[in-house]
Design a protein that fits this description.
Elements lengths: L3 H10 L10 H12 L8 E4 L2 E4 L6 H8 L27 H15 L23 H21 L3 H14 L6 H20 L24 H9 L2 H16 L5 E6 L6 H11 L8 E8 L3 H17 L4 E7 L18 E7 L2 H4 L3 H14 L3 E7 L8 H22 L5 H20 L12 H9 L3 E4 L3 H12 L7 E6 L2 E6 L2 E11 L1
Parallel strand pairs: 3-4, 3-6, 4-5, 6-7
Antiparallel strand pairs: 1-2, 7-11, 8-11, 9-10, 10-11
Helix pairs in contact: 4-5, 4-14, 5-6, 5-7, 5-14, 6-7, 7-14, 7-15, 8-15, 9-10, 9-17, 10-11, 14-15
């Protein structure tokens, strides 16, 4: 696909860059999005010259629950109490269950005339009709939050503020997972109101420089503590490593290109596995890293990897392509040799480029010209980029609730690492997704189905991950105490890692036709 206009049109259709605007062209775009079951459209009522933006809560997330129960399935760690068992004991609901039940109740009691309640048959149905007092309070709290979001969407800011005052009274950043989630989402709504009423000066964020914006973009002591308790990142990285090793099984020279290395700790495992390969031993492995911000940090990572490879007597080299402007990237930066097997690794990188369509287009064209044996892509498995505010709010509420629920299971409530993760990483992402628009909003994750359609336009084919990849993923999960709540699931030819049925990340492999 050589016409950049085609790429721009495609990306707009899938909500990659376009913000919602009340004009025929964008409304037609949203119509296409609705047909693709990606986003829903806000109904509008024309009265003379006045367009009435009717308060509307998108049905898409709740239709998703009804039509795709496997996507939100219960695991061993998230069972719902069966009321027919004849017991009076309450089964504590997860934060995700509370939010979904609140959504159902809010829809049922909403005055929105556009909603067909008969179409909303919740996955758990009447099994959630009898709740513990705490769960019932949390569901009511989440209902208030949803009502506030609806009022914000309708620009009824005074009414929204009153509801948010209730949320602030009933929620807490030290409470249970649902209360913590509501606390941070209420903050984000307040920030959005302040922005839209001119009380807050806009701040332009950068995904590269502001680590608090998106999940999995910071690696400090708090993130290390989290990764020691929860296998999300390990599953993603080691599944990718297995796919890489299989793709270069017959290559004696391997050139891996990493577009966002972060710590690079996973490459020590790759080096060790490659050094132990007896059949067709690797004569040389080279890792090239594309970096735009912190060259010194990446240099230290490279020295560590070179030292590790030397200890194994393994032929290895490390190169940095430092480009403050990623739009200047070309295939010549990588010095690829004819006899090298090239592999592209893009973990949590492409979503950062959604805000910079020219850079995304440049990266994809360069990757195609490099003719890699394989491209491994890992990303957030959630649509957090709907041009419709309320849709985006609901999607992010469901998604982030899984993280608050996860931390409840693996860390104490007063754990400082937990407080940091919730306030800085998750709270920062929520504030950006919910509280910002336009160039300020840089956290724009889209799910695997959207990336599938995107890659298809570049002539890419999804490669099925092997049974060994799935085995490795499950083996990693089994090493963790939270294994009953975490699962690795096949998603077409790819793999999704989930928390109590809520998808968190995906790993996929691609090649060009």
């Amino acid at each position: 696909m050589e016409d950049s206009t085609d790429i721009q049109n495609f990306c707009t259709n899938y909500g990659f860059y376009q913000e919602y605007a009340a004009n025929p062209q964008v409304q037609e775009t949203n119509k296409q999005q609705e047909e693709m079951n990606v986003y829903a459209v806000t109904p509008q009522v024309q009265t003379g010259n006045h367009v009435d933006k009717t308060p509307f809560l998108s049905l898409a997330p709740f239709e998703l629950l009804r039509n795709n129960p496997s996507r939100w399935k219960n695991t061993e760690g998230d069972k719902v109490r069966n009321l027919n068992e004849g017991t009076n004991a309450y089964q504590k609901l997860s934060a995700m269950q509370i939010m979904r039940l609140a959504g159902e109740r809010f829809i049922q009691f909403s005055s929105n005339k556009f909603i067909n309640i008969n179409n909303l048959l919740h996955l758990y149905g009447s099994a959630l009709s009898n709740l513990s007092p705490e769960d019932n309070q949390d569901v009511e709290l989440a209902q208030i939050l949803l009502a506030a979001a609806e009022k914000v969407s309708d620009q009824q800011y005074d009414r929204a503020r009153k509801m948010l005052m209730q949320c602030q009274l009933l929620s807490s950043n030290t409470g249970n997972p649902a209360q913590r989630a509501v606390f941070y989402f209420a903050q984000a709504l307040e920030e959005r109101i302040d922005r839209e009423t001119g009380r807050l000066i806009p701040k332009i964020h950068s995904v590269e420089t502001d680590g608090s914006i998106c999940i999995a973009s910071r690696f400090d002591a708090s993130h290390l503590a989290f990764h020691q308790e929860v296998p999300f990142t390990q599953v993603v990285h080691f599944t990718g490593i297995q796919a890489i090793l299989e793709s270069v099984a017959t290559k004696s020279k391997v050139h891996l290109i990493d577009f966002l290395i972060r710590t690079g700790v996973q490459w020590a495992s790759l080096i060790q596995a490659a050094a132990e390969r007896k059949d067709n031993p690797i004569e040389h492995m080279k890792i090239t890293v594309v970096e735009s911000v912190n060259k010194e940090r990446v240099e230290e990572t490279g020295k560590s990897l070179e030292s590790f490879a030397k200890s194994l007597n393994f032929p290895f080299s490390f190169k940095i392509v430092f480009l403050p402007d990623r739009n200047q990237l070309t295939e010549d930066h990588f010095d690829v040799k004819p006899d090298e097997g090239v592999v592209i690794y893009a973990a949590f990188f492409l979503r950062a480029m959604i805000c910079e369509p020219n850079c995304l287009e440049t990266a994809m064209r360069v990757i195609r010209r490099l003719q890699p044996e394989l491209m491994v892509v890992s990303e957030v498995e959630a649509n957090l980029n709907s041009p419709m505010f309320v849709n985006r709010f609901i999607d992010s509420l469901f998604y982030y609730s899984a993280f608050f629920d996860c931390l409840e299971d693996v860390m104490k409530r007063d754990d400082q690492h937990r407080m940091t993760l919730e306030s800085v990483t998750y709270g920062g992402g929520i504030r950006n997704i919910v509280g910002s628009e336009g160039k300020e909003r840089v956290c724009k994750s889209v799910n695997l189905d959207v990336w599938r359609s995107f890659f298809k336009r570049f002539g890419m084919e999804e490669v099925k991950l092997s049974e060994t990849c799935l085995y490795q993923a499950n083996l990693i999960i089994e090493q963790f105490a939270c294994r009953n709540s975490c699962s690795a699931d096949v998603n077409g030819r790819s793999l999704t890692v989930s928390w109590k049925g809520t998808p968190i990340y995906f790993t996929s492999a691609w090649k060009f036709h």
